[in-house]
Write a structure and sequence with these properties.
By secondary structure, the protein is α+β, with helices and mostly antiparallel strands. The two termini are 38 Å apart. It contains 16 helices and 17 strands. The strands form 4 sheets. Strands 3-9-8-7-4-5-6 form a 7-stranded mixed β-sheet, with helices on both faces. A 6-stranded mixed β-sheet has the order 13-15-10-16-14-17. The chain has 3 domains: 94 residues, Winged helix-like DNA-binding domain superfamily/Winged helix DNA-binding domain (Arc Repressor Mutant, subunit A); 124 residues, 2-Layer Sandwich (Endonuclease, Chain A), CATH 3.30.870.10; 168 residues, Phosphoribosyl-aminoimidazole Synthetase, Chain A, domain 2, CATH 3.90.650.
């Protein structure tokens, strides 16, 4: 199976798309939930893969409820790929220019201020799509006319400005250390790149290098973009770092753990301006004899719900799809805030509430991706079923909004979202009252019964 997945990836599938397609070949038509189960991947990943495969016409969906999906036949899949490859090869054979083996564009030296500026103007005038440049204030005034003309014809312009350069053309990243850099280097430098193909760089008053060499152009673009992002980070990132670390520290306080390390990495050219990514993990130790064992759960044990603070951080692939055309900044009366703010409500952390009562608890389920159906069954052994009363679940308005806006079946909602229950505790009837009285807003939602596994919503 792994070899088939690798071969499908050679055709342009990613691993999730390959697993979804193979799952559908085993059983079709199938619902999104069934596909995720057969492919053994998270449901949100399954839906993303299905959407992509439908767009590429490798999977077909119906318009009935519940929505089901069909794969194109393997023969049709391979024939399409053969036709596509043959068409591409024929096109390239006709259109690719004839060049010598190991050919590289040459590199030329240009000397003298006037000649260097003339070449800079040529590059700007040749550019049809984009211009990146680093330039001193004294020299910019000699090429400002050409920059404005390029901007007027639609070129994307980005300038790292040394000195007080004022222009309405494109994005300007101001560098405050022009004089210090000039004194340190002993010259004013200039870097210009047109359409990522033609470039010039060097000491603007004496000598510079001009070339259409693709590798030189790539390196110069990396250099200019790196400076742009460093300037942007210098102005904006410290406040973001403070806010991020503050939020992580608050999470540590809530969970009684220590923040002992971390690092930041700027990746110019990868993350857009004002965007960032954050990842972290926690490590804990528990004595072997204190590990909660799902096998200790018995029929007759009670299931207690701890309320979630909202969607938490799961199911957002589906959330984005449902709310793609919604105004996230619009105030929603039911929430007392905007829709976006409601969706970004921080995930509830239960450590302080649960840990003091751990000796009274037989098992725990954190309701994350996969909702009730994938998480609660992990907290008990075989020959048992979690019987949960729907009428007892206190579902927040955000889930009702998502269900209505996405026209999603109730059962499917419980496959994806926490539906207002962020964590479930299983305990014996003798300990239930103590837990309910100790944890604010906790409540009973069901009990364990003899069965064939899974959960039963009734």
């Amino acid at each position: 199976m792994d070899k088939i997945i690798e071969k499908l990836k050679n055709l342009g599938f990613n691993s999730y798309e390959a697993k979804v397609y193979l799952a559908l070949l085993k059983k079709y038509p199938a619902t999104g939930y069934e596909i995720a189960q057969m492919a053994n991947i998270p449901q949100s990943r399954a839906y993303d893969a299905i959407k992509s495969l439908i767009a590429d016409k490798y999977v077909i969906s119906n318009s009935e409820k519940p929505q089901t999906y069909y794969p194109v036949s393997p023969k049709e899949l391979t024939q399409r790929y053969k036709r596509k490859m043959n068409s591409t090869i024929e096109f390239l054979e006709k259109k690719l220019p004839k060049v010598k083996d190991n050919y590289n564009e040459p590199i030329y030296s240009i000397e003298g201020y006037d000649d260097i500026l003339e070449k800079v103007k040529e590059i700007i005038n040749h550019a049809k799509n984009s211009i990146y440049l680093e330039v001193w204030e004294e020299d910019f005034k000699h090429i400002q006319k050409e920059i404005e003309q390029a901007y007027d014809r639609g070129s994307d312009i980005k300038i790292v400005a040394f000195g007080n350069i004022k222009t309405h053309c494109g994005l300007v990243y101001h560098h405050d250390g022009a004089k210090e850099i000039e004194n340190s280097i002993g010259a004013r430098m200039i870097f210009v790149l047109g359409d990522s193909t033609e470039c010039i760089f060097g000491r603007v008053e004496s000598d510079a290098i001009w070339s259409k060499n693709s590798l030189i152009a790539l390196l110069l673009k990396e250099f200019i973009v790196h400076d742009m992002y460093l300037l942007d980070v210098g102005k904006n990132f410290p406040e973001k770092v403070a806010a991020i670390v503050s939020g992580v520290a608050e999470g540590c306080v809530q969970s009684n753990c220590a923040l002992i390390g971390g690092e930041t990495a700027e990746m110019p050219g990868f993350y857009p301006v004002n965007e960032y990514d954050i990842a972290g993990f926690s490590v804990g130790v528990v004595e072997r004899e204190k590990i909660l064992n799902p096998e200790n759960v018995k029929a007759g044990d009670l299931i207690i719900a701890l309320p979630s603070s909202g969607v938490h951080s799961n199911g957002f692939s589906l959330v984005r799809k449902i709310l793609a055309n919604k105004n996230l900044h619009e105030h929603v009366a039911e929430f007392g805030k905007s829709l976006g703010e409601e969706l970004l409500t921080p995930t509830k952390i239960y450590v302080r509430e649960v840990l003091p009562l751990i000796s009274k608890i037989k098992s725990i389920a954190h309701i994350t991706g996969g909702g009730f159906y994938e998480n609660i069954p992990r907290s008990f052994g075989k020959n048992l079923t979690a019987e949960i009363e729907l009428a007892k679940i206190k579902t927040p308005e955000i889930f009702k909004l998502l269900m209505k806006a996405g026209n999603i079946e109730l059962d499917e909602m419980f496959h994806v979202f926490n539906m207002g229950v962020g964590m479930t505790l299983i305990t014996s009837p003798n300990n239930a009252d103590e837990i309910l009285n100790s944890i604010e807003n906790s409540y009973l939602i069901g009990e364990m019964i003899t069965g064939e596994g899974g959960i039963k919503l009734c």
